Amino acid sequence: MGTKTVIKDSEFIQDFSASLSDDYLKAKSYVQDVPTQSLLHIRSFTHKLTELLGQDKQIAFSSPNLYDRIEQLNQQRVIDVKTTRALHRLRADGNRGAHPEKYHLTQAQLLALAQKSIKDVLALVEHLYPKVKGQVAPDYRYEASDTLTAKDLCYRAVMEDDAEAQYLVGISFKTKALILKEQEQQQDQEFVTSAEATANPEPSGVLPLTSHISAADSFARAAYWFALAAPKHMEALHEHGVALIHGYQGVPEVAKGEQLIATAAEAGVVNAMALLGYFYLVGSESFRPDSQLALQYLQRAAEGEQTEAMANLGVLYYQQKNLAQAYHFISKAAQAGYPHAQYHLALMLANGDGCTRDMIASEYWMAEAAEQGQLDAMLTRAQHMLNDDNAFGSDLTQAEDYLRQVIKYSHSVPAMIELSMALADGILGRIDVVGSAALLKLARQNANKKETDLIEPLWRSLILQIENVLEVTQDPAEIHSLKRAQTLLG
């Protein structure tokens, strides 16, 4: 009896479709050291896979947008529900990989996401193999031996003067810098938002930084590699321009950076076209607002599935009172996974702007945006949950988590007020007057005039609540907590 042949995962993908092999191998090789690049190749793989799935049925795709392609295949019953969900998951993971800082991902979470996506690709291909190839999928084994190491990448960048490697080293440093910057900001600005934290004056809730270099150091190193690669690599030229605008190596050189981005845009770099379109939309140091040029560059970037360009096209049409077109492009950006567009789509659906008013769809997109970390959506969802008489315990837990994240990342006074009231009134299943007082004090310190006017009656009400309970309670622990709350309220 012969031994059954087991092939390598790379051979398995090659056997399934040679056109997908290059993106798979690159995604796999970049996982450890440049996970953002790995996830972008996963997205490219997914796009090519939809093309492959549509070929047999001679599907003429009506849109270059990956979301639209997946839905068209689903609606025409070319793919089943499992495949549809798997394709959307890979699409979403690719979007998250492009901007990990906007999803508040840590370096470890980004790495885990890239590793998971590779396994998800293999599982999907295994599921599709009988349908596409007409036979049972062969046995295969996953091999990590062809992983690109940081040493290999740096050798190519330094010793071989390889512009692509130099660009990827820059991307790796930039990604780490963005994540480190968020961690450093949390450490510097962490707020006291619970009774336990109030008892301990030290900042809480943020893991200590494990990197031996700072965000500023990482940004400077990224800028060095982008500048080195820029003469021969248009994506690096765009990143070099961004680095100059933001002063990665010290003093910003905005005008020079904007001109480099314009050059990269003319060379067809999608992210550069999106940024140049934004410059023309709102104006910048080098470019005056020009709606026609904004439309031109944003449209070209949107055709390349740049989600922020889609969203900004929606903004442009909204400014021009063309609500139908605004709704169309904001919908596209939302469907492509861009959380800010998902939030604005929810608002448009709630108001009936450019569309039929649909509160159920509005809540769906608000929930999607909140789940992806869009802070305005998280606040709105939390408020809806706390004011829903039919909310379950899990909803209330989610509402509290959303509010704490909004406070943590944006220092939102409305979120502080909302959580303070919920803790004082026992809406979350417990009464925490110390946590409530700490939040209300923090809100008062950060409030504008309108917010201060709202806080004052709540402040007086909480003081009165504490005094009333102190008059009747005999519990030493409760008395201790109430007096601490009194101290916080002065």
Helix content: over 70%
Q: Which shape, going by the Cα principal axes?
A: globular
Rg (C-alpha, Å):
26 Å
Question: Order of strands across the widest beta sheet?
Answer: 1-2
What is the CA-CA span between the terminal residues? 85 Å
**Individual helix count:** 24
Judged by helices, strands and strand pairing, the structural class is mainly alpha
How many separate structural domains? 3
Strand content: under 5%
Order of helices and strands: EHHHHHHEHHHHHHHHHHHHHHHHHH
Task: Give an overview in words.
The chain has 490 residues and is mostly helical. It has three domains: 7-141; 150-356, Serine Threonine Protein Phosphatase 5, Tetratricopeptide repeat, CATH 1.25.40.10; 382-489. The protein has 24 helices and two strands. Helix 7 (150-158) packs across helix 8. The radius of gyration is 26 Å and the shape is globular. The model is unreliable at 191-210 (pLDDT under 50).
